[in-house]
Amino acid sequence: MNRILGETYPDAHCELDYGNPLELLVATILSAQCTDKRVNMVTPVLFAKYQTAEDYAAADRAELEEIIRSTGFFRAKTTSIIGMAQAVCERYGGEVPGRLKDLVTLPGVGRKTANVVLGNAFGVPGITVDTHFQRLTRRFGWTTETDPVKIEHEVGSLIPKREWTVMSHRIIWHGRRICIARKPACGACPLADLCPAYGTGPTDPVAAAKLVRPGPFS
DNA sequence: ATCCCGAGGG
DNA sequence: CCCTCTGGAT
To answer: Is there a contact between A65 and A74 (Cβ–Cβ < 8 Å)?
Structure first.
């Protein structure tokens, strides 16, 4: 399955638009419960107005909220961005830290967001367990866990570390294009012959994952 | 477990 | 109308 995913999505990459670690961090915070396409609609305006952590730390809440409103959760996201920026200024001299341990201490930055920034802006291999990754690896039978950290470790043990970041993107791309949450397109899936959850529909991925556990290299 | 919250698909 | 979208904090 791993090989087929690589052949199907040779160009899988982060689809958020950004030019530096701070921009990616902000874009990733905005991406919660929101499509990347919509995030990319607001970030040009946002990045034009705020360039540094100091800029965000001193931002006017109402102005920032208005810019990011369409991404949803805009009050919480504004609190996260301003709080994150203040912490970056106070504790890291205005530079986004390049270590997981530091990133997850920032307000509004959890493990998933931290791994996105590490993997894409710092070149540190990281597994990104988001809603897609969790749904697909469970459907594939690569894990039966529901805790994101356990999934990260279990799947990480099945995949070479140097492939962690690109593998995350391939799985996420597949989740967006074929193995869609609401309506999996099993008929169009290149993994159909190998997938334990083939044809089981959007519900009951748990039972499907328990049937067979072929692993990523079968 | 619940809240935050807008936009788009089916 | 109901669900989901590359989550995180309480």
So the answer is: yes
Residues with pLDDT less than 70, chain A: 203-218
pLDDT attached to residue A212: 43
Q: What's the CA gap between A122 and A47, in Å, rounded? A: 20
Q: What is the pTM of this model?
A: 0.90
Radius of gyration of chain A (CA): 18
Reduce the secondary structure of A69-92 to three states and give it as a string.
Answer: HHHCCHHHHHHHHHHHHHHHHHHH
Q: How many Å from the CA of A135 to C1' of B9? A: 19
A37: CB within 7 A of chain B nucleic strand: no
Distance CA A69, CA A61 (A): 12
Which nt has its C1' nearest the CA of A129? C6
Q: How far is the CA of A30 from the C1' of B8 (A)?
A: 17
- Please report the pLDDT score of residue A199 as a whole number: 87
Query: So which residues of A are the catalytic ones?
Result: 112, 130
